[in-house]
């Protein structure tokens, strides 16, 4: 598990350095005709926020931050209320109650039906949504209390191309992969996107290839800056995966369909600045072939997850984002969380990810995940921007 400690330290160091980068250095600042934005991001003030009277804090910020944890773990919004933000506290408390209601109802439904296959998908999806509401409302309260003005803001621009190359290390008690190299490329055109990624593990004679096509139903598109939506979007994704383990003489192939969404905090919590909420739900179907036995096994997966994150600086120029997330996937390198008792493997996996760009083109992404295996990775990222809407058109070397 030393890999996880190293990964968490790397993510934390990158996130701290990103949070300090609040302004674009003059030497790297793109001109008005070549940059998605030219000014330091500032917290937005919506019309609804401006019309609300600002209350005085009921206690000091350090005490309010303590209150967001105790009693905030039980009463979500306590930190915001102590900070004088009654409206945010009310919304977070309602979200907590709704989350508990959905989760409790889903667990009751699973118990009554005996977790029957025909009903488990519906109830587990409902439980994921409920736990997401409960967890995200707690995280939003702690964040709003600790950083009332946030660290940054997404200006609502999307690059037409993103490429990555990096190294992934896996600590798996059952399979020895050795170091993996990862490379990927994503192309975007208006609302459409096409992404291809490949993992190679020469030591384990293993390779994995993923291809995804996406359609952005709502949110900023290539060549069209949409400051009103920021980083928010709703995207439908169709994916295919081919994973080969030549040393063990088997391969897995499958397809999936999922709906992913991100909502910037200002859209639902006007006084919570620079944060965002992620969520996804989907379904996957897989076929695993064992060459040694000349047989194949079919199975299906429920996909889902949620995340809370924050922007630091301007993610399109000198800044990025950090998020902590839960993913219900039980395949891949991380799989489900191992625990003692009957619940082992039922829960998905958890992760921490941070990305920081040093200019409009070059950046780094670090991540650490824990499930039945521990995974850390570090990747070099490059982007290219459309010349429309004042974005950067050429990659800078």
Characterise the protein shown here:
- The chain has 397 residues and is α+β, with helices and mostly antiparallel strands.
- It has two domains: 53-148, no CATH class; 156-390, Beta Barrel (Porin).
- 25% of the residues lie in helices and 37% in strands.
- It has seven helices and 13 strands.
- The chain has helices at 2-20, 47-51, 61-69, 78-82, 86-113, 117-146, 265-268, and strands at 151-152, 161-171, 180-189, 192-201, 206-219, 233-245, 250-264, 275-290, 295-313, 319-327, 349-357, 362-370, 374-384.
- A hairpin with an 8-residue loop joins strand 2 and strand 3.
- Helix 5 packs antiparallel against helix 6.
- The radius of gyration is 22 Å and the shape is globular.
- The two termini are 37 Å apart.
- Residues 1-6, 8-51 and 389-397 have low confidence and may be disordered.
Which key phrases capture this entry?
2 domains; alpha+beta; 12-stranded antiparallel barrel; 7 helices
Largest sheet: 12 strands, antiparallel, barrel
Quaternary structure type:
single chain
- Terminal CA distance reads 37 Å
- Quickly name the level 1 CATH class of the largest domain: Mainly Beta
| Count of DSSP H/I helices | 7
Shape: globular
Q: Structural class, from helix and strand content?
A: alpha+beta
> What string gives the helices and strands in order?
HHHHHHEEEEEEEHEEEEEE
Strand content: 35-45%
Compute the number of strand runs.
13
CATH topology name of the largest domain: Porin
Spatial order of the strands in the main sheet? 2-3-4-5-6-7-8-9-10-11-12-13
Number of separate domains? 2
Q: What is the CATH superfamily label of the largest domain?
A: monomeric porin ompg
What's the architecture of the largest domain, going by CATH? Beta Barrel
